[in-house]
């Protein structure tokens, strides 16, 4: 098995090292034709706008969309989550191109700036049931996105409390994240939909390889509905600038 790691920018070396720890070869992907040699793909964390510009420069978006469309497993971490989302808010002026396929709405900088990065224990019942180990995972959130909405076919794997001091301050109504009693809701930070896995945090920056092992098992899962997660995705109609683009404060 060979797993590709998009190696344009960001933490691709850390993912390759984590794959090595679980006995799998990680292949750096920088050109469209290189995708033909791998069984699955990881889109790492990094600066999502810069990654998108580099992917566009190398004409990677059509190949990435096709990779998703044919049902090969793809995992996006942090910036990679933004890439896979059908809709993204909180983008910089001009937005960024998206691969799409994951039926969710992502806020690009939900947890704030680089200075507001943090670590926290995340409950991961699905991962613990499949991979063993403790029932929680140490999530590393670096200028992290948050998943605001998911479609009915999306399985939520993890969420975290969203206290007011972690809210992004300009692009959405804080009150929309509270229930009728005024209590704080949780924000989704990990999901799975068909052949797609996405995490807002960085498992590759820890020594815990359970997320990588979980993803590798997706490679061998029977695909009951080929690319069921991306039937609405068309390479002729890319999901670019899905929602109005807002300027960050």
If you had to describe this structure to a student in words, what would you say it looks like?
The structure is a single chain. This protein is an alpha/beta fold. The chain has one domain (2-224): Class I glutamine amidotransferase (GATase) domain (Rossmann fold), CATH 3.40.50. The protein contains six helices and twelve strands. The strands form three sheets. The chain has a seven-stranded mixed sheet. A hairpin with a 2-residue loop joins strand 11 (186-193) and strand 12. Residues 224-249 have low confidence and may be disordered. It catalyses: L-glutamine + H2O = L-glutamate + NH4(+). InterPro entries: Class_I_gatase-like (IPR029062), PdxT/SNO (IPR002161), PdxT/SNO_CS (IPR021196). Its EC number is 3.5.1.2.
Write the layout of secondary structure elements.
Layout: E1 2-6, H1 12-21, E2 25-29, E3 40-43, H2 48-57, H3 61-69, E4 74-77, H4 79-84, E5 85-89, E6 102-107, E7 118-123, H5 125-131, E8 136-141, E9 146-150, E10 155-161, E11 186-193, E12 196-199, H6 210-219
Parallel strand pairs: 1-2, 1-3, 3-4, 4-12, 5-6
Antiparallel strand pairs: 6-9, 7-8, 10-11, 11-12
Helix pairs in contact: 5-6
EC number: 3.5.1.2
Protein name: glutaminase
Keywords: Glutamine amidotransferase, Hydrolase, Lyase
Task: Work out the count of structural domains.
Answer: 1
* Main sheet overview: 7 strands, mixed
CATH class designation: Alpha Beta
Helix content: 10-25%
Which structural class is indicated by helix and strand composition?
alpha/beta
Q: Distance N terminus to C terminus?
A: 44 Å
Beta-strand percent range: 25-35%
Catalytic activity: L-glutamine + H2O = L-glutamate + NH4(+)
EC number: 3.5.1.2
Keywords: Glutamine amidotransferase, Hydrolase, Lyase
Family: Belongs to the glutaminase PdxT/SNO family.
């Amino acid at each position: 098995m060979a797993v590709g790691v998009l190696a344009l920018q960001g933490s691709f070396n850390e993912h390759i090292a984590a794959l090595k720890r679980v006995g799998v070869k990680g292949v750096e992907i920088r050109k469209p034709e290189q995708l033909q040699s791998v069984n699955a793909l990881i889109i790492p964390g990094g600066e999502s706008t810069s990654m998108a510009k580099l992917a566009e420069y190398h004409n990677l978006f059509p190949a990435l969309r096709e990779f998703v469309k044919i049902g090969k497993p793809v995992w996006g971490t942090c910036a990679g989550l933004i890439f896979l989302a059908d809709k993204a808010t909180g983008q910089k002026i001009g937005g960024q191109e998206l691969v799409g396929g994951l039926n969710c709405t992502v806020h690009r900088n939900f947890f704030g700036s680089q200075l507001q990065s943090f670590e926290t224990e995340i409950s991961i019942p699905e991962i613990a049931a499949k991979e063993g180990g403790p029932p929680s995972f140490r999530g590393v959130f670096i200028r992290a996105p948050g998943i605001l909405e998911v479609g009915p076919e999306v399985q939520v794997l993890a969420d975290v409390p969203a206290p007011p001091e972690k809210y992004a301050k300009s692009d959405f109504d804080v009150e929309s994240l509270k229930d009728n009693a005024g209590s704080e809701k949780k924000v989704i930070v990990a999901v799975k939909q068909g052949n797609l896995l996405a995490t807002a945090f960085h498992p590759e920056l820890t020594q815990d390889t359970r997320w990588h092992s979980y993803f590798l098992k997706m490679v061998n899962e029977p695909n009951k509905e080929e690319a069921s997660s991306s039937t609405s995705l068309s390479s002729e109609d890319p999901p670019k600038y899905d929602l109005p683009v807002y300027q960050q404060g």
